[in-house]
Specification:
Elements (H helix, E strand, L loop, with lengths): L3 H15 L20 H8 L4 E7 L2 E6 L4 E5 L12
Antiparallel strand pairs: 1-2, 2-3
């Protein structure tokens, strides 16, 4: 499991790529990772959101959206986050 410095490094490296970008598409590969939402509802709520900030809160990466919402990401055991930018 990644420790705080690794999570901070991932958040800092994501910041220049994500801030100001609009989420065009969402694929939920592991539906059990969603709390109280089905994958279709989650995808519809996140798609079209503009990322206005990327930060670390504990071992969570927080993507802040222009509409006031946020997405919490945990790196789980692998410590990997795959960003597909096209």
């Amino acid at each position: 499991m990644p420790e705080l410095p690794e999570v901070e490094t991932v958040a800092r490296s994501l910041r220049p790529f994500l801030v100001g970008r609009v989420i065009a598409e969402v694929d939920v590969l592991w539906p059990r990772s969603l709390v109280d939402l089905d994958p279709e509802t989650f995808a519809s709520q996140v798609t079209g959101q503009t990322v206005v900030g990327v930060e670390r809160r504990g071992k969570w990466i927080v993507l802040r959206f222009g509409g006031g919402g946020a997405l919490l990401i945990h790196l789980r055991m692998s410590g990997q986050l795959i960003l597909d930018s096209y």
